[in-house]
Amino acid sequence: MPATSRRGNRGPAAAAGNRRAILDAARRLFTERGYRVPLSTIAREAGVGQGVLYRHFPTRLDLAFAVFEENFAELEAIAADPGEGAFGRLWSRLLEMTIAESAFVEMVVDARRALPDRGDDRRLLALVEATLPRARAAGLVDPALTADDVLLAQRMVYGVVVTETDPVRVRQAVEGALALLKERALVPAVR
């Protein structure tokens, strides 16, 4: 009988590596295939069993929150800048995340529905509310622009991203939609 090259079960010693592998696989697959990618596919891509995935992340939302916590941390770091340009950088990065990782938006929407007390939509709103007044005061955006307007525009961009059937044209479609909205002064025209 031939010898197998299978490694022995490392048990708890493998937990940190397994968690990292799951997070990396989930981020990659959420980006490539969307938020609803089967969890079994994520486990397989990470090289772990589904039981291991569920031990670390009991629900899809638990996994998504862990994956996208890095996104929130990045947005929070941008918003923490006391300068007047923080809003423009926050808006630009939020748009980029919406285009590149539409699963991030899907997760926030799903959380809003499933876990209204979780507050991730309020977390995003708070970041916009923290930066927008400085941009208004500096004359960088329309003085009538509200944080709710900004998040509505971001959701509209998300709609363009998920309904564009040609992945090559997504950025062009988003730019066209933003140009139309800017023309009507409905989105942040950051100067």
UniProtKB/TrEMBL annotation:
SUPFAM superfamilies: Homeodomain-like (SSF46689)
The keyword DNA-binding appears for this protein: yes
InterPro entries: Homeodomain-like_sf, HTH-type_TetR-like_transc_reg, HTH_TetR
A molecular-function term among this protein's GO annotations: transcription cis-regulatory region binding
Residue ranges the UniProt entry marks as DNA-binding: 38-57
Transmembrane segments: none
Domain HTH tetR-type: 16-75
Keyword Transcription regulation listed: yes
Protein name: Transcriptional regulator, TetR family
Keywords: DNA-binding, Transcription, Transcription regulation
